[in-house]
Amino acid sequence: MIEIDGLTKRYGDKAAVDGLSFVVEPGVVTGFLGPNGAGKSTTMRLIAGLDRPTSGTVRVNGKHYSHAAAPMAELGILLDARSVHPGLSARNNLLALARTAGIGRRRVDEVIELAGLAEVAGTRAGGFSLGMGQRLGVAAALLGQPRTVVLDEPVNGLDPDGVRWIRLLLKSLADEGRTVFVSSHLMSEMAQTATRLVVLGRGRLISETSVEEFTSHATAAGVLVRTPETARLGQVLAASGVTVINDGTDVIRVSGATAEQIGAAAWQAHLPVYELTPAHASLEEAFMQVTRDSIEYHAGATR
Amino acid sequence: MSARAVQTPATVAGPVTQARVVRAEWTKLRALRSTWWCGLSAIVLIVGLGAAIAEGGAPYKVTAVNTAAAGISDSLLGLFVAQLVLGVVGVLAFSGEYGTGMIRATLAVVPSRLPVLWAKLIVLAALVLPVTLLCAVADFFTAAALESARGGSVLLLTEPGVLRTVVGSSLYLTVVVVIGLALGGLFRKTAAGLVVFTAVFFVVPIVVGALPHSIQGFAAYLPSNAGGALWGNPLTTGNQLSPWTGFAVLCGYAVVLIAAAAWRLRRHDA
Question: Chain A: nearest CA to B141, how far in angstroms?
Fold first, then answer.
């Protein structure tokens, strides 16, 4: 379990994380979403005690992490930036971490196998591709079989096989009763893996909810209607307090009415309808909607 | 939260102890190629240069002025270069982790942080002290054998100051590596640590040597001069401290710098 309370971290004048409070429960995968620069990585560094909060507290499994007697049993973390020694082999990188908790070579070989690194375990980590470096980082996070696992963008640089591996891994860790907290900018990935969501924008909490709720709460994207009589159907629908947007030559986007209501209205008005498509708001769209105001760097907006 | 009861999952990780962190640091140091290259060059510099010095020049005759200890100090002149190599080992042991990012992994598994500094200190000192002691002893026997073969005086370990010079050179290099480590932890950047180390141990003593004698009084307290008093070769000639006072001053610098590195490690974001 991770409990974050009133967490603020300033670098100079700029608040990377600003008054953040949320709880990550064990037993489920919790996704951590937010646009670039929202403060996800900073939050994760604060959880691991690598950075000191300006104010507020972080508790990992009920304790301040820096006071943990057996840190590797409490928390395993994969950070966004590389944190391996390029001059050491994958095995020695892991062994050096394992030694601090009295973990032996057998467990090191076990996670090497688990992460699919058996063939490169003896080669220096400096020559690793992004994907292999990522696998090594995940192996390091799992080394101590920690009660809480925090992974910053674990699928970054992984091939489809690796992405699938991460997905299954996260689920099985959660099923074992561990706390699993994963950041990603890929909403579709979160939709498939996470049960709970913490959404961050400009260092502030935007939403703490379930994936289901998050998707349904976002304003419905409406219904697309293809008809040769766009103008007349528009009038019929608008009369009943519904918003109609003319999208193209023969397509209108209707919000505020279900596909059934629109179909019935068109039938009563004797207007032909060729296509009637309810557009479900995807997690991606919901996310864009919720964070629109908080995106720090709009593409092309600067300069 | 899910409705089913969540039990505490299994773990293989035990508590962090100082001994375990020492073992972890030894795992890193042993596996790095740079450690072996630096160790090898230190051996060559001390023993090899010592042999070359004894072989070159006139055979050494012990007199009231040219003591046996002074002869041995001269054969240990390779220390001036070896100390740079060991300074690099010390600085890199800390700054290397910041440069590569490994420090984040290291501190994430030892969040109380200070055991990492103590472990690095213990591992480096435990490696450098015996290796340099062996080098100095080898240097002594090589130099003594070469001198007597060339018709110089017989140099014995039992003569006044000789044992102190031999052991002292090893103690000096051990404290040097500790100071390097502290600078690496303090500056976190390899380049900055090395520049400061080289300036303090090499450049400043030489520059001070060129100053008028009236304002040179502090020269004896520079780390390499204070430490040099123990093994008989301060870089700035002239006034010098007594051997053990000098060594105590050198250790004083090491303690202050290690304390500063500890403070930085504890207080600042990784």
Answer: 37
